[in-house]
Amino acid sequence: MKTNELREAYLKFFESKNCVRRPSDVLVPQDDPTVLFTPAGMNQFKNQFLGIGQLDFTRATTCQKCLRTGDIGNVGVTAYHHTFFEMLGNFSFGDYFKREAIHWAWEFLTDSNWLGLKPERLTVTVYLDDEEAAGIWHNEIGLPLDRITREDERENFWPAEAPSKGPDGVCGPCSEIYYHPPGGGKEVEIWNLVFTQFNRVGDPPDNLRPLPKKNIDTGMGLERTAAVLQGVESNYEIDILRPLCENVGEILETSYQFDGKTGRAIRRITDHARACTFAIHEGVSPGSKEESYIIRLLLRRAFLEGYLLGQKQPFVYQVVPAIVDMMSQPYPELKQTLANVQDTIRAEEENFLGTIERGLGKFEKLVEVAKSSNRKSLPGKEVFDLHQTDGFILDLTFSLAADQGLSIDMEGFRAAETKHKTDSGKGISWGVMAAGPLDELQKSQGETKFLAYEGVTSEAVVVG
Ligand code: ATP
Ligand code: MG
Ligand code: MG
Ligand code: MG
């Protein structure tokens, strides 16, 4: 099944369950102070889940454009993470609940009229004490107990804090569905069913009050499920992404192979170019704050990957026509901004080109010195200098350092930043990097934000 067919099949299936098909919300929400980019399908329905505002329907289904900055470190590394991806969802606002959500997910996945996956390839997780969900999976769906795993709040509660500790507000357990590929490859999480059934108020005991109207919020990864259906080993091999990787390979005058030595770099370039195409289409330009900073980071990282493979001229902008072409069936509007998106990307590449050689030289020297003296981190003062004068913005250096197994001395970085602020009499702003659930961050916590590069969250800092 082609990816475009899967998207349509999902929406049709849930329409047959009386869910109203709604369009994707924007990728860059303007009136939501809590996120830079839409991280999940439920984002556009947050108010309804909180009981604020009424829609004229109680069941919905969407295919949502998402961007998760917290997954930047996973891109190209795992087979199943992107920054930009599409999430298929079905939602109930005080209407159907756990039983229907589980039965319908199973029907869509396994019924031969729909995806027809073999039941024995699927396992599920449930929250520790969610007997109701475990009971439905076991007694009604017929899943053997050894294919139902209990997970704690890190995996199976939303928001991902222990029910006794998390923030006030709606919350609940979830149940994730995993596919196990034939041949013993690593299983992949394809669908998360979230049962928002409590209002959490104050401290335990008795702080989880059952909601009078319980909600359903589910998210299925479009690219992951397409990879399962197409029998390929990575999301990047599916029909809408493999041709883009090949296109990047051609532009770089190398051939793309999943396991080839340029495979990871090409997947990163492909992912980042796709994310930037969608964000710039919505009006974000690369810059030093918030969404703009993330787009700058993604573009510089993509350009650097190609630069390291010998492409010394702007090239990321050349990938845009193929991206627009691949994504044009669901998002024909991308065609209208193609030229502008290309110009914006090209200008940013040219901008970075001016300092990249010098910055790379400095960065490589720092790595060499750190490794030869057995240090695990790069000195903050020099990293700040790279940030300030060479276009190697902090998170870019973070991600390059992480590839080398190194972190950054953030104390030194902060000291250098404070000194610079004092010397120049002005503040510095950069945006937000967020790991995992921290995608939902306060946008307006002051002019300078914090960094939390995946894998180095212990180094996460509030800058400024
Ligand atoms: P993972 O544990 O693999 O990072 P997740 O638990 O963070 O996934 P959810 O927040 O539950 O993901 O999102 C719902 C679904 O969206 C996932 O089951 C998966 O299919 C898909 N998904 C999540 N993150 C990504 C991503 N970065 N790229 C592609 N698909 C994703
Ligand atoms: Mg998960
Ligand atoms: Mg999940
Ligand atoms: Mg994740």
From TrEMBL:
Localisation per UniProt entry: Cytoplasm
Family (UniProt): Belongs to the class-II aminoacyl-tRNA synthetase family.
Full-sequence portion shown in this chain: 1 to 464 of 875
Any one of the GO CC terms: cytosol
Organism: Thalassoglobus neptunius
Upper taxonomic lineage: Bacteria, Pseudomonadati, Planctomycetota, Planctomycetia, Planctomycetales
Cofactor: Zn(2+)
Domain named Alanyl-transfer RNA synthetases family profile: residues: 1-464
Protein name: Alanine--tRNA ligase
The record's note on its domains: Consists of three domains; the N-terminal catalytic domain, the editing domain and the C-terminal C-Ala domain. The editing domain removes incorrectly charged amino acids, while the C-Ala domain, along with tRNA(Ala), serves as a bridge to cooperatively bring together the editing and aminoacylation centers thus stimulating deacylation of misacylated tRNAs.
Catalytic activity: tRNA(Ala) + L-alanine + ATP = L-alanyl-tRNA(Ala) + AMP + diphosphate
Cofactor info, note text: Binds 1 zinc ion per subunit.
An example molecular function term from Gene Ontology annotations: zinc ion binding
